[in-house]
What we know:
Layout: E1 8-10, E2 16-18, E3 22-23, H1 29-42, E4 46-48, H2 56-70, E5 78-83, H3 89-103, E6 108-113, H4 120-135, E7 139-145, H5 149-152, E8 164-168, H6 176-184, E9 188-192, H7 204-213, H8 217-227, E10 231-232, H9 239-245, H10 255-262
Parallel strand pairs: 3-4, 4-5, 5-6, 6-7, 7-8, 8-9, 9-10
Antiparallel strand pairs: 1-2
Helix pairs in contact: 1-2, 2-3, 3-4, 7-8
The structure holds NADP nicotinamide-adenine-dinucleotide phosphate.
Amino acid sequence: xxLSITSSVFLKSGQRIPQIGFGTYESTSEEAYTSxxxxxxxxxxxxxxxxWYENEEACGSAINDFMAQxxxxxxxxxxxxxxxxxxxxxxxxKAIRESxxxxxxxxxxxxxxxxxxPHKEGRLASWQAIEEAIDEGLIRSAGVSNYGIRHLVELxxxxxxxxxxxxxxxxxxxxxxxxxxxxxxxxxxEAWGPLARAMRFNNxxxxxxxxxxxxxxxxxxxxxxxxxxxxxxxxxxxxxxxEANKNIFDFELSQDDMAELDSLDExxxxxxxxxxxxSV
Length: 280
Ligand SMILES: NC(=O)c1ccc[n+]([C@@H]2O[C@H](COP(=O)([O-])OP(=O)(O)OC[C@H]3O[C@@H](n4cnc5c(N)ncnc54)[C@H](OP(=O)(O)O)[C@@H]3O)[C@@H](O)[C@H]2O)c1
């Protein structure tokens, strides 16, 4: 069967996740509501938000309104949110409940620890709260974000699996050692900043491949991500862009094209870089 915007892959938890997600970082509540609704109308079935983004309620409302209007059931939509601070067991328990409440969706398909700050004790307390919430049915699958190998080893014998690590992954930031380790542990890699946050669309190799395939640089970057087996989370608050970003299933990058993109690794930090911060 050919791939499409609703194609999904299995997580270690056994749950399916649509391979293309939709990002909402830096979207105001108003932008998040409108863009998530437009994304769902365009066929996206996987929404990524976070406590940090202060738009969880807007994302949840957009999903609920879309379901009511379209008849698409809750089970066909995949909703992810993230814990902002590893601030102790009680804090994390409360934050999870608050995220479930704000979403209005009854449960979270995926819940991630947003980053490894500030220390091991905080990270492990958060993970304990997450496992409790899985047992209570509030969370279906769990994972982490911006975790380096040194952080993942702390979670080597958990009750529930670490299903996902969400990392900044694109040709200009490839994190090869981390990718290899996560693959070895069967942890699915979600790619944040899959468009390199629009910082490299003028790269000559990217431009040439874009002309060769008659696709935009954004579409080439997303195709690279899918062919790598990642789960990219492109964000746009513009309807025409979010529509275009999903049209990546009618062309294929050759091995040579992939190798050319692979040659672009430059450790480009587009936002934050907890893995590169030796203090954590
Ligand atoms: N776990 C983490 O620490 C972390 C960190 C960052 C992001 N994330 C998640 O990953 C998602 C994606 O990352 P991101 O939002 O940082 O970056 P991104 O998706 O790589 O890039 C988004 C930027 O590209 C622009 N854009 C989108 N489509 C375009 C197109 N076709 N042509 C030209 N420009 C285009 C967007 O502008 P417009 O909106 O104006 O179109 C926006 O400025 C986030 O939204 C968030 O859900 C997670």
